[in-house]
Amino acid sequence: MIDRMIERLRQRDETVLNDIKDQYGDVCFKTAYSMLKNKEDAEEVVSDTLFAVWNNIPPEAPDNLGGYIYKTARYIALEKYRLNTAKMRNSAAAVSIEELGDCISGGDTETDFDERQLSALLNRFLSSQPEESRRIFICRYFYNMKYSEIAKKYGIGLSRTKMSLKRTKEKLRVFLTKEGY
After folding, report:
1. pLDDT, the chain, mean
2. In terms of domains, do 153 and 96 share one?
3. Does residue 57 or residue 155 have the better pLDDT?
4. Which domain covers residue 151, as residue numbers?
5. What pTM, to 2 d.p., does this model score?
6. Going by C-beta distance under 8 Å and a sequence separation of 6 or more, which residues neighbour residue 66?
7. Which helix (H) or strand (E) holds 45?
8. Three-point CA angle 138, 121, 132, nearest 5°
């Protein structure tokens, strides 16, 4: 089905955008809303994501269409967040990203590393972690969820959630140091 969607994009079949929105729109909306806390902005991110997918495929043909769409939506939401908060640097997304910045040399998450290489290292690191730790980490640093939201989602205590994140973050710091970051 995914290959068929990519083929329809290549053929410039506009109806594929409705299918993409049906399949991926909710997760893109939820991600954007978790960062922006604004329904209209999140809806705009979904629309902008569909537009970006339409304009970029072809020539690109991603191996994982869902991942590509999700990453595009997350990028657009982050850019919208930066635009909306150019003078305010104090939201949950900024806080969670800043927390991770401590693990990466000097804490400068935009210039100290090659994004693709770091992404591969993060994937390798997370795949080596216990499932619960991995899920909690992803909720916090990828979905920008609050500690209390994560604890509620998995039916665990707040202190357990915080401790899991603290330990996983420390393991990540050690792992990245060994890898040269």
Report:
1. 82
2. yes
3. 155
4. 92-178
5. 0.54
6. 2, 23, 24
7. helix 39-56
8. 30
